Amino acid sequence: MFPTVSHFLSYAFGIDIPLPFNTFGVFVALAFIAGYWAFTKELQRKEALGILHPVTRVETIGQPATLTEMISNGLFGFLIGYKLIYALLNYRLFVNDAQSVLLSLKGNIIGGILLAALFVYWDYKEKGKYKLAQPKQVKITVHPHELMGHMIVWAAVWGFLGAKIFDNLEHWDTFVQDPIGGLLSFSGLTFYGGLICGGAAVLYIARKNGIKPLHMLDVGGPGMMLAYSVGRIGCHLSGDGDWGIVNTHAKPFNWLPDWLWAYTYPNNVAMEGVQIPGCTGRFCMELPLPVYPTPLYEVIVCFILFLVLWRIRERIKLPGMLFGIYLMMNGMERFFVELIRVNTKYHVAGIAFTQAELISALLFISGLLMVVSAVRKGNKETS
């Protein structure tokens, strides 16, 4: 497995380059890029069809940099310099444990001050280039797809917070033992938490810019399915613990690769299992018994579902229907993979279920209701 990019480079090319990038994080970034592409394409298509429309804003130009702007830029520059210079001066430590370096209070004061001054000066000079003797107001047209940069930032921040909150709720016993570590750790993320909170943030931005919620939801369905598929590649390659239950059954087909049927996730970032003989360093654990590689199954299934959604999106005219189909597909996929996946189970009235099973069932029902509602509304408008 490849817990870091350096492990992959060593395996693929035989070169040892110490880099402070973990594989999971790289694929999370790629998932956002994939989602950005799909969202942008759909926003452009819907605008061309006249479903979405650009908005006009009034902005003031020609103003010099304000004190508030310079202070905020200075604080941001100080934070970057404080951490960046410290990380470069302690590069080996940064490579071995980037999380502790980034989340600790340790840093370089001189680096922070230098970058703070640079950021303030840059803001002052940039605003000074366009300063007018008399600032004026101008109207700016913003097309829907031009909002994606703003949306992606909000989705990333609130999605991460939601994923952490839902994960800590799911693993409450571990969280209460170390609440600060549970909140600040980069590991342990629940997809549905990210979907709910990140999606709510995107809907908020869309509504502020005149995009109706149902239209924005339809835009997001295919893109979220694609992003999830790409993100799960990182889960599989890094071995973050999202694997299945033990699978010691014989392969149903001889041609099926062992790693596609049952896998032990060597060098997993979850650091679970037994020590790998002869391995030194942080990521030297391997599961004692092979398990179902459920992240890989989700990569394949969700990419196929994305292709289906991408193919049918132009044929569906009823607002909310495409997103309803996405919710049904998402709910079904996750519900069935939970049957062979390791997860915390809750027991209510003699019924055992996981958090993901409960949410996926609710999503399927919600999707079904959205489809039915869209059809009824369409029939009513036709009649």
Describe the overall structure.
Belongs to the Lgt family. Keywords: Cell membrane, Membrane, Transferase, Transmembrane, Transmembrane helix. The chain crosses the membrane at residues 20-39, 70-89, 101-122, 147-166, 186-206, 295-312, 318-337, 358-375. It comes from Pedobacter antarcticus 4BY. It is built from 15 helices and 6 strands. With 383 residues, the chain is mainly α. It folds into 2 domains: 25-54 and 143-245 and 292-382, no CATH class; 60-139, no CATH class. Strands 1-2 form a two-stranded antiparallel sheet. Strands 3-4 form a two-stranded antiparallel ribbon. Helix 2 (23-48) crosses helix 7, helix 2 (23-48) runs antiparallel to helix 11 and helix 11 (213-238) runs parallel beside helix 14.
Give me a quick take on this structure.
With 383 residues, this protein is mainly alpha-helical.
